[in-house]
Amino acid sequence: MTGRSRESDGDGEYEVDSEYYGDSEYDGDSEYEGDGEYDGDGEYEVDRESDGDGEYDVDSEYYGDSEYEVDRESDGDGEYEVDRESDGDSEYDVDSEYYGDSEYEVDRESDGDGEYEVDRESDGDGEYEGNSEYYGDNEYDGDSGYEAVEPGNIPFTLALDVAHNRPVPYHLPLVNGFVPGYEVVVVGQVQHGADRFHINLESSTQDVIFHFNPRFNDGVIVRNSKFNGAWGAEERGGGLQMRPGQEFRINIVAEHDGYRVYVNGAFFTLYRHRQGNSLVHQLLIDGNVSIRQLVYYSTLLGIGYPLRSDCNIALQHSLPPGSEITLVGTPQPHLDRFAVNLESAGGAEKALHFNPRFNDGVVVRNSFLNGGWGPEERDGGLPLRKGAKFTLNIRCDPDGYRITVNGRFFTLFRHRQSSHMVTSLTVKESVIINSVSYKSQIVSF
């Protein structure tokens, strides 16, 4: 048995606006097999103490299986209402990114008008396509107004997915910090008869950068920060969208002005930074709660920083079953074709070559292994358009790569090489890349 004390968060009054993310559903259909044609010999296919109000909430004692018995005193009575609407139930949107079961919508309307002129080498089908050359000043002229960065090797961000009833308290190191572009998703169940639980973003010195504290007896969610042992002003507005005994999902998104919080798919609050967001070192979860799943991930490239291909992105943890990559980009209007490759052997082999060919109206899928192309798969048509933004999701399943384009299932490309050998993602030809993200289920218990 362990003892743990809790104190109030202080009193603060804040109002919260809501956001609406609508609904949009997409239905996948059909799986495709190849047609047995060869590409030939071409190479390019491709974490409670006093919170600052002077009132002590008491000593809670922990009895075995994640249940707490608590005597506590009230921490204030600030009340505020918040208008919230559902995020809907969309799995995918054309302008959204999908990370496992979390729903995260991102609007990036920056298509640019840079010009590319292209010579191409053979893809193995007897037609020579080749190396692209970029002419111009490397400026990205779309709505974002940001200059494109040069292609090259880019470190890929690991997404950590921890699952299945983890006991609390639980500390999750945030190895890459929690700066804009990062998100944490907590899926769990509030215990029956629960009083409270909390989620903290903490520094390496145990400062609490962000304290998210649902209190069921009070009907509020308290937000606060603690620096040098002292709690700041509470934020208590917005009500309580969880009940004991029920499952919940909490998304905390790091942004430049604060942490944007969603509860069960609906926007709840923006908690503005009180100190720099670069201080976050770990996540702590404690209280009357059972954890079902934790996801820590990042988009590789943030909003407004498009990248001109060609690019090569190293995958630090290969691509095991359960992992997925989501790429948002825009093909240049003059484009005949482009390729997204999952590569191994230092780029010498391609486990998956995804090659939309606009003039032919097809997406060729293939592998380049042991020095040669395998049989092409060409079924399914062409679900992309020149100059139109697309969202490509590649999920590694035990039997193959499940490919979704703009929220719709496109095909299953069966493994021809172990996905554990995949070390990089490359994008070839004239595509403006708005974001690349990676999620991998690597720890289960």
Automatic annotation (TrEMBL):
Residues covered by region (Disordered): 1-132
Keyword Transcription: no
Keywords on record: Lectin
InterPro entries reported in the protein's UniProt record: ConA-like_dom_sf, Galectin-like, Galectin_CRD
MF terms in GO: carbohydrate binding
Domain called Galectin: residue spans: 170-297, 311-439
Coiled-coil regions listed in the entry: none
Bias (Acidic residues): 10-44, 52-68, 88-104
Bias (Basic and acidic residues) ranges: 69-87, 105-123
Any single Pfam family the record assigns to this protein: Gal-bind_lectin
TM regions (residue ranges): none
PANTHER family: GALECTIN
Protein name: Galectin
Lineage, broadest ranks: Eukaryota, Metazoa, Ecdysozoa, Arthropoda, Hexapoda
